[in-house]
Amino acid sequence: MAANQEQIQASGRFSREAAAGYDRRIIEGSRIILVGCGALGQFVALLLALIGYPDVVYVDMDTFEESNITRSPFYRKNAGKARATAAGAMAMCTATGPIHYRHTNAMVQWLGDALFRADKPIVVLSAVDTMQARWWLAERTLLNSVPLIEGGFRGERWNLSVTLNTDPDGPCWLCDQQHMSAGRTFSCTTYARAVSEAGFVPATASTAALLAARMVEAATVLLHGESELAQCTLFGNSRTAAMQVMRRVRNPDCRLDHRLTSHDAIALKGDPISTVRDLLNKAGTIVPDPIVHLPASFVRTAPCLNCHGVVSVNKPEWALSGAPRCTPCGGEYALAADDVPEQHGSLSSATSEALFELPLATLGIGPELHLRVSGCDRQAVIRVGGTSEPLLKTADAAHS
Amino acid sequence: MVGFLHPRTSKVFEADVETHTTGEECITGLIQAGFIEVAPAERPYSMTVTRTQKQFLPAMRMQDVGAQAGEQFSIQQVERGAAR
Q1: Mean per-residue pLDDT over chain A, rounded
Q2: Cα first-last separation, chain B
Q3: Residues of B with CB below 8 A from A127's CB?
Q4: pLDDT tens digits, A326-351
């Protein structure tokens, strides 16, 4: 134990938390991944810092806007700044013990599955707005067998789900969302502008704070091996104090394969895989005539709604946050399924040659991402290499 | 006779339902009766047997969740906000 930690221990700083059942060894030996640092995420970040979680990863693609001020405790000193950076910096000011945090202002999808790999217990706290990010986290945490605690609210109503992702016969987050489509991704800022223009106030600070407290307590209890809320969704109302617990069950019609996990993945070894051609060649050594299934469609081109020209997109579906637009006329492109002339959900030898030299990152294949490969009646999960570290900035502080 | 609790008010809709009625049929019936509105795709309804807290999935039948006479079902709607 470091000298600084010994001093903190001796001071009895965490004696109240210990009396309440928090074990410092568990808190110090865990990692929390907080995805979304908006209203909800910032209250979560504050509580994690006060409890003294030393290893937290903050992920958020957005920046602060003035409309955030009434719901964002970190807004005052960070207007116009990236929210993940602000969350980390403010958590460092609030931290009650040594803290080593990482943050990124990228979309969570760019971090691949490397984000979910660690030599310690991980809990993912999802405080995101978009369906695509929710969908991604549900799928990736299930594949990586990492618990997911997800929150959402609207005015005074909130819901919280705790999904273990360790039991193939248990529910995943998507099990009761079967009619949902991931839809198109918009940043929170874009969405906030739209709802503001519509005169709709979807969130209150008090509901965000209440939900954040429940999420952090659920994570802490889960890390301590207790699971009263495991596989449950809570529906609550911060105004009336009404609450309903729903014990979720696995949906036999779930679109996700619960038995496909990263434990069975075959790591692709040898020369680095940088292009689609490399990937198909390597996958072919495991499954003959492989079809590599992408976690999200890759959109190569789309028609412009304005001039009806073909717009070069070259992005995974989840990265289409309003850009690019048609170069000649500036019009928005269409993404309705019938109109998309070139969208790829999988890669194989039949794939357009034009894709073969594209870097994997362009297709949204992030570091250590697991991919399902099928062909010739065989199926496997492969893991590409790489690391998410270049996208994550690190900071340390030792509080006395 | 079973009761369905409205997602936002304390109103209860009482109905006679068969043991083979599914969760989806219940939701459809409640919409047709004007008790609840059509849910947007990203915020679907969930149903819970209030007594047991067990989830009543759309494809499940009343008998699958052990519904009894006088049973009450809570209807919830998932909310999606977090940041804005």
Answers
A1: 84
A2: 42
A3: 82-83
A4: 767 766 666 654 555 688 999 999 99
CA angle A84, A89, A94 (to 5 degrees): 120
Dist. CA A74–CA A251, nearest whole Å: 39
Q: What is the ipTM, given to two decimal places?
A: 0.89
Query: Would you say how long chain A is, in residues?
Result: 400
List the single residue in A39, A232, A244 with the smallest CB-CB distance to B76: A244
Place of tokens 């509105």: B37
The DSSP 8-state label assigned to residue B8 in this structure reads S
B16: distance to nearest CA of chain A, Å? 23
- H/E stretch holding A142 reads helix A131-143
**Smallest CA–CA distance from B65 into chain A, residue:** A249
In chain B, what residues touch A151 (CB-CB under 8 Å)? 82
Phi/psi region, residue B45 (left: phi>0; alpha: psi -120 to 50; beta: rest), is: beta
Chain B residues with CB under 8 Å of a chain A CB are 8, 41-42, 44, 46, 48, 50, 52-55, 57-59, 74, 76-84
Residues A22 and A253: their CA atoms lie apart, in Å, by 39
